[in-house]
């Protein structure tokens, strides 16, 4: 999977950072098919090139507020097959919630200062391109705690909440067990409890792990 050739559109208003990222990604086997310095340019380049992944900064010209992530939401609505990796210094809770509202598959949100190695970033690109979800733990914390109406989540035990946050980051039960230093069976019980409290019944098609996170975000969205 890691060796898959990825086509990337890169949105970053800092020319120096943008050029550096193009060089780094190229050295890692990714093809940056276009770059953009503004949100309208990003939308145009994605529409033209239909990349595997669009890398998006949140704050872009002209107002440097939320143009980038607003464009990401629009890309998601227009071309759902294009993966979105938000790469920013900031956590924008309201727009991030909207970006995730229709499903977390193919969505990533990483904070620039917390990515220690280029390999981590490239791995995240591949995971997003393959339909996975990559959320920085700090982003998850903001999303989980940002609302004022924490109804179901307030019923979770501290351990169930820990498990839910790790689920939101894309970890498997085995990975969660290793991180929390508990048995995989214990994690399964916590996950089942989370599903029960959110009223998520087993079906053949629903991804309850994603829905457990998204239901909470929808609950606190307003």
From TrEMBL:
PROSITE patterns found in the cross-reference section: HTH_LUXR_2 (PS50043), RESPONSE_REGULATORY (PS50110)
Pfam families registered for this protein in UniProt: GerE, Response_reg
UniProt-listed SUPFAM superfamilies: CheY-like
InterPro entries, A to Z: CheY-like_superfamily (IPR011006), NreC/VraR/RcsB-like_REC (IPR058245), Sig_transdc_resp-reg_receiver (IPR001789), Tscrpt_reg_LuxR_C (IPR000792), WalR-like (IPR039420)
Membrane is among the record's keywords: no
Domain Response regulatory residues, every copy: 7-127
Limits of the HTH luxR-type domain: 149-222
Residue numbers bearing the 4-aspartylphosphate modification: 57
Record keywords: DNA-binding, Phosphoprotein, Transcription, Transcription regulation
Descriptive protein name: Response regulator transcription factor
Organism: Streptomyces lavenduligriseus
